[in-house]
């Protein structure tokens, strides 16, 4: 049975999915329907390109180097522990829009936390923010049996004006892996700015 996480809630992956080794983190979203009013022709008609990324942090919550950022231009961590399955430029379609596979035993010991983030590509020039996005979610799936372990749903309007989101983190704790649902909206001009805050 899937756990529907609340903001700030933490779960033990060892407890909820005993024997878990390979998991898939899926992220999805829909663009809110635009109103059809008289001035609707002035509204932004560009596609929403949300980019999911993983930041691999050390024990002090810092990035050691740029290779520890997994995103659309660096799809695989050098350890092969984390693989981004590709960029979705529009968010169209049902289910996950972007997926990231994590092999927990392969994560190097120097990495203590995986932070899953999403930002809106070219948000400034397109005048886009998360208030225009509906049905955003992050979910974890045990790839051994395709069972959904946990899901965290995000409301769009709460994030009006926010252009980035720190969605969830998976972290080591006393030899166990745990997941925390965060859902922290932030204002950033792109992934580079978000990455700098962890450098």
The helix-and-strand class reads: mainly beta
Q: How helix-rich are the residues, as a percent range?
A: under 10%
Q: What is the alpha-carbon Rg in Å? A: 17 Å
Biggest sheet strand line-up: 1-10-9-3-7-6
Query: What's the end-to-end separation, in Å?
Result: 38 Å
For the sheet with most strands, the description reads: 6 strands, mixed
Mean pLDDT: 87
The SSE string, one letter per element, is EEHEEEEEEHEEEEH
Shape verdict: globular
How many strands appear in the DSSP assignment? 12
Strand content: 35-45%
Pfam families: TerD (PF02342)
Protein name: TerD family protein
Walk me through the structure.
By secondary structure, the chain is mainly beta. It is 7% helix and 41% strand.
Topology:
Layout: E1 3-4, E2 10-12, H1 13-16, E3 22-31, E4 50-57, E5 69-70, E6 82-84, E7 98-103, E8 113-120, H2 123-126, E9 133-142, E10 147-154, E11 164-173, E12 176-186, H3 191-196
Parallel strand pairs: 1-10
Antiparallel strand pairs: 2-12, 3-7, 3-9, 4-5, 4-8, 6-7, 8-11, 9-10, 11-12
List keywords for this structure.
199 residues, mainly beta, 6-stranded mixed beta sheet, 6-stranded antiparallel beta sheet, 3 helices, 7% helix
